[in-house]
Amino acid sequence: DTGVSQDPRHKITKRGQNVTFRCDPISEHNRLYWYRQTLGQGPEFLTYFQNEAQLEKSRLLSDRFSAERPKGSFSTLEIQRTEQGDSAMYLCASYAWGNEQFFGPGTRLTVL
Amino acid sequence: DQQVKQNSPSLSVQEGRISILNCDYTNSMFDYFLWYKKYPAEGPTFLISISSIKDKNEDGRFTVFLNKSAKHLSLHIVPSQPGDSAVYFCAARANSGYALNFGKGTSLLVTP
Q1: B36 partner at 20 to 30 Å CA-CA among A44, A57, B56, B75?
Q2: How far is A50 from chain B (nearest CA, A)?
Q3: Of A1, A59, A61, A44, nearest to A26 (Cα)?
Q4: Would you call A91 and B91 a contact, using CB atoms and an 8 Å cutoff?
Q5: Nearest CA of chain A to the CA of B74: how many Å?
Q6: Within a 10 A sphere around the Cβ of B38, how many other Cβ atoms?
Q7: A53 pLDDT exceeds 60?
Q8: Which residues contact A48 (CB under 8 A, 6 or more apart)?
């Protein structure tokens, strides 16, 4: 399967803990995006990378959030000191050319 | 500020009939529009798209219409099938490769 993969698919954590998610994009896709989707909403943009460079961050990406793409391949999204409001589906998408972004299955985070 | 709006949270259609999903946008800089389909516990899957220089794009049972003057687009599914039951998201972007702006989605139910 050469699609976008995300790990883990589900994460339950206690408030105040740190969590890290991983995204593996489609091979050779140079752009990688992170989105967040909460109940009843569409995906909301968080940040994106072109190769290893983080080019844009949304105002939704608070200081507790950090994303990396160290070698221009996979990416990680870390949330420090999680809050209940962080509970959401975190989606990763990749893009190379054309117009559509290809999404992974998402990581569902539940903060208790 | 929601730049892409889907004002119908849900739609129910009988199998074999036409499904029409609507989307409005406010940002005149958007130059490309996409429809994604999402099943529960999965990431969004690209369905069909349209450039701002066109007013119609067709792919099998799916047709997207764009009315730039009204800042409105619609997705037509004919004939509707039970397997089309999913949440449909309208998305738009201002430049190639940039982040997508999503609507809140419309949940389509196609009944036998």
Answers
A1: A57
A2: 10
A3: A1
A4: no
A5: 17
A6: 23
A7: yes
A8: A31, A32, A33, A34, A54, A55, A56, B99
